[in-house]
Write a structure and sequence with these properties.
With about 350 residues, the protein is mostly helical. It has one domain (about 5-335): Amino acid/polyamine transporter I. Helix content is about 75%, strand content about 0%. The protein has 14 helices and no strands. It has helices spanning about 5-15, 15-30, 35-60, 65-75, 75-110, 115-160, 180-190, 200, 210-235, 240, 250-255, 265-295, 300-320, 320-360. Helix 3 runs antiparallel to helix 9.
Length: about 350
């Protein structure tokens, strides 16, 4: 029986900081400029609210995953239908990360290596944990990687603090306005909420009663790290330059230079990023395959992995350029996030409350 401890849940959530810092800082700076740190903070608050909703919903159905309690609440067919948007989200998100991370890795480290080879190596890493030990192994991996990730981030903030220019953060709010600040916050918000995976993994907790407390701690750590990273990028580069840098935090780390002795710290960041992306890919693969097995009532969920992996790889290979990636981002913000992050959880929560009142 797969089990997950409270601390493992915390660090699973914290590993999402990789995607937030890697993918979301530059797009936030493009629109909200020197106020992008406020956008990331607002995104964290939205993510915390949605995390509260999905964790509370899962706690109302202890030891049941989304596919199980949605069937119990809505019936066999409608309950299964509810799960389909989530499966689409998890499978396509896996392909999105599998395609996006090599784009970051290839030009800075292994520029002569074909993208498909890097993808195959990542596929091997993402399969190992779910197939061998399931969510327990993923939790243990995150319990090791998460603290190292936070340590590296904190060290990078401390070392470069002397080069920070607070004037790059001024004026606050006046140039941007709440409309742009909130608009930018929607995109990173679903990363803070752990792309709906908590609807599944809370069911594996040894003590489900601690799920809400532990998830809030995880969100809190993630928000602090993401906001601080955004602030440091802004204070080092300024909003105008930061908006032109694709991977702004990575370039920020490259600027670290202490007496011409402490340099090239970006290599440590790359390794940490690989661990973080591996944790995320493994988690999405586990959640997607486990829920697929629950949906089609397959007893051995691990068998689904061997059907899922070729599909994820083909989807990743077929992504031609960043135009498609940008369109996918818009799909998440405008459709997937409102439906899977807000609409369906609220519906399931309301049905649960109504059924419980009627039962009494």
């Amino acid at each position: 029986m797969m089990k997950l401890s409270g601390s493992q849940l915390v660090w699973i959530i914290v590993t999402e900081v990789v995607a937030i810092i890697w993918i979301n800082i530059t797009p936030a700076v493009l629109i909200s400029k020197q106020d992008s740190w406020i956008s990331i903070l607002v995104a964290g608050c939205i993510g915390a609210a949605l995390t509260f909703l999905v964790v509370h919903l899962s706690m109302l159905h202890p030891h049941q995953t989304l596919a199980q309690f949605s069937r119990a609440l809505l019936g066999k067919w409608l309950g299964r239908l509810i799960v389909l948007p989530y499966l689409f989200a998890w499978y396509t998100l896996s392909a999105y990360l599998l395609r996006g991370f090599p784009d970051f890795l290839k030009p800075i480290l292994i520029d002569r290596t074909p993208l498909w080879i890097i993808m195959l190596l990542l596929l091997g890493l993402m399969v190992y944990l779910p197939y061998s030990t399931g969510i327990t192994g993923i939790g243990r991996f995150c319990e090791i990687v998460g603290p190292i990730m936070v340590f590296v981030l904190v060290i990078s903030f401390i070392i470069n603090a002397g080069n920070a220019n607070w004037h790059h953060l001024l004026p606050v709010y006046a140039d941007t306005g709440w409309e742009n600040i909130v608009k930018v916050s929607i995109r990173p918000a679903y990363w803070f909420a752990g792309p709906f995976t908590l609807l599944v993994i809370v069911a594996f907790m040894k003590n489900p009663r601690k799920a809400l407390q532990k998830s809030m701690i995880g969100i809190g750590i993630t928000v602090v790290m993401a906001v601080t990273a955004t602030l440091m990028v802004l204070m080092i580069f300024g909003p105008n330059l930061a908006a032109k840098i694709r991977f702004s935090y990575f370039i920020y780390v490259r600027t670290i230079d202490i007496l011409d002795f402490v340099q090239n710290l970006d290599i440590f960041v790359i390794f940490i990023w690989v661990f973080g992306v591996t944790a995320q890919l493994s988690l999405y693969l586990f959640v997607a395959t486990y829920e697929t097995a629950q949906l089609f009532q397959v007893k051995n969920w691990r068998k689904i992995i061997w059907f899922s992996i070729p599909g994820i790889f083909i989807m990743a290979i077929l992504i031609p350029d960043e135009t498609i990636i940008a369109a996918y981002d818009k799909l998440w913000v405008s459709v997937i996030f409102p439906v899977c992050g807000i609409g369906i959880p609220l519906l399931l929560w309301l049905v649960t409350v109504i059924k419980r009142k009627l039962a009494y």
